[in-house]
Specification:
With about 350 residues, the chain is mainly beta. It folds into two domains: about 5-155, Nuclear Transport Factor 2, Chain: A (Roll); about 160-325, Beta Barrel (Lipocalin). Helices cover about 10% and strands about 40% of the residues. A ten-stranded antiparallel beta barrel has the order 7-8-9-12-13-14-15-16-17-18. A six-stranded mixed beta sheet has the order 2-1-6-5-4-3. It has a two-stranded antiparallel sheet with strand order 10-11.
Length: about 350
């Protein structure tokens, strides 16, 4: 099964039936008349939506041509039938999607293009991510099928100024996974923490530099796409990440590299006190995953970090919730204070 598909693509496909109706709305039967291609395409879209809501991968695959493909918003090319064959019913606590508008154009009697925009609202977010998609429908043996889908995320024009708003992230953090039975004060204990995070600006304040150390008890995909339990014999893992403004895509973008050879990229958007990093990662064995990493800052020294898988097969992966706790900055002794050794520079300082 292909694992790299973006959830936004499948959401867009599932929403076709909710798009604006044709100029002369009519209740289309399950099998629309051949002389009314618009009604026939809408009927096919409704069948697709029903199959999606029921998690019927076989029915979804049947609505794709054998060579139909998906190109997601990060340029990955996937076979349409393979990408949807293993899908399951959408989760109630997963990202919520809504089609804003679509336009259907008939190129020939047997080919149509549908263009539209889709909103994806991550869990806990008030402002959705907005994307654009284009679907190609073809009629083969009298039935309309999808032959291709292309999608692209629409960048916010205000994100350039928001890089400075990530200044709250600077510092040294302890990261602990949330458990219902964890004592309220246990998360604040830094000794023996499984994950340590250090964040600082580069010299010109054009990039945030994030260095993460994951102890033997935990391993994480590059860019923080997922966190899974591991054995004590696993080596510690280092992840370096750079967050900056990309003038080409006009978005805040991050690049991450793991000491195990994994790597990942993410685009960042802001929703009030919440930041959403739409992440894709490539693992050492070549498999791909994608996720929404959601950071909600409390305005002080804590941040809730949630990771929601969005790739095909990700519906079987757990949603991870972690708490980032900023460590107090250790004050330097005054020049008059005697000391027997040189002070150790605090983590996250330029000296490190």
């Amino acid at each position: 099964m292909v694992r790299g598909a973006c959830g936004c693509v499948l959401a867009a496909l599932a929403g076709f039936a909710a798009a604006e109706p044709p100029a002369k709305p009519a209740a289309a039967p399950a099998s629309a008349p051949a002389h009314d291609p618009v009604a026939a395409i809408r009927a096919a879209a409704r069948r697709y939506q029903e199959a999606f809501q029921q998690g019927d991968g076989a029915a979804l695959a049947a609505l794709w041509t054998p060579d139909g493909d998906i190109v997601d918003d990060q340029g990955r090319v996937l076979n349409g039938r393979e990408a949807v064959a293993g899908i399951t019913a959408p989760s109630a606590d997963g990202p919520q999607t809504r089609i804003k508008e679509t336009k259907l154009r008939l190129l020939t009697d047997d080919v149509a293009i549908e263009d539209g925009t889709v909103e994806v609202t991550p869990p806990g977010a008030a402002v959705p991510l907005v994307g654009w998609f284009s679907a190609t429908w073809v009629r083969r043996a009298g039935a309309w099928q999808l032959a291709g889908v292309r999608e692209s995320q629409i960048a916010s024009p205000h994100d350039a100024a928001r890089l400075a708003d990530l200044d709250w992230m600077v510092g040294d953090w302890t990261v602990v996974e949330d458990h219902p039975d964890r004592p309220a004060d246990a998360a604040a204990t830094a000794d023996g923490a499984a994950i340590e995070l250090s964040v600082r600006w580069n010299a010109t304040r054009t990039f945030l530099l994030r260095d993460m150390k994951i102890g033997p008890a935990r391993q994480a995909a590059a860019g923080g796409a997922a966190v899974t339990a591991g054995g004590d014999d696993l080596p510690a893992m280092q992840i370096t990440q750079r967050i900056g403004w990309d003038p080409l895509s006009k978005q805040i973008v991050s690049w991450a590299f793991g000491s195990d050879g994994s790597h990942g990229e993410a685009t960042w958007t802001r929703d009030g006190t919440t930041w959403i990093a739409r992440t894709s990662a490539v693992h050492p064995d070549g498999t791909q995953t994608s996720s929404l990493n959601i950071y909600t800052y409390d305005g002080d020294d804590r941040c809730t970090w949630r990771s929601v898988p969005t790739h095909i097969g990700g519906e079987h992966a757990p949603h991870v919730t972690m708490t980032m706790i900023r460590r107090p900055q250790r004050a330097e002794p005054s020049p008059a204070t005697p000391r027997t050794s040189s002070p150790r520079p605090p983590q996250g300082s330029p000296a490190r």
